[in-house]
Design a protein that fits this description.
By secondary structure, this protein is of the alpha/beta class. The protein contains 4 helices and 5 strands. The chain has a 5-stranded mixed sheet, sandwiched between helices. It is globular and about 40 Å long. Pfam families: STAS. InterPro entries: Bact_StressResp_Reg, STAS_dom, STAS_dom_sf. This is RsbS, negative regulator of sigma-B.
Amino acid sequence: MFVSILQQGDFLIASIHAALDDSELMRFQKDVMAEIANHRAKGVIIDVAALDVLDSFGSWSLRNLVHMARLRGATTVIVGIQPEVAFSIVELGMELDVTTALDLENGLEYLESVTTGHRAGKSMLGVLGSHDT
C-alpha cells in the first residue's frame, strides 16, 4: 500500500507511505479529490512523513492538490516534512507555498482552528481509498 486516505470526523488524512512516480501522484490527486466530494470534507491533511525526497514534480503536484481542494471548499495542510526534504526544497528554490505543520496532531489542531470542522465524530480509519498504485 503506497497511499491511504482515512476519514477522521470532518477531515481526511491522506498519507503517502512510499515514493510515488508521476502517474501515481496524479492518481493520488484524483483519489483525494473524489474523497473530498464523497465525504464533504472540510479539511485535508496530507502526511508526507515517509518521504525522504520530494522532486519538483512532486512539490508541484502537492501544491496543485492544495489549490484544487480549496476550490472544493476544503482547507489543506501538509504535515511531516522531513528535515532533508525541507532543506532540498529551499536549496532548489522550489515554491511549495502551502500551509504546513510539524505532525498529524498539529495539522488537526490547525484545521480545527481555521474551519468549522472537528476531528471527533465519524471515523473510517483504513476504509477509504487505500490502494496500491
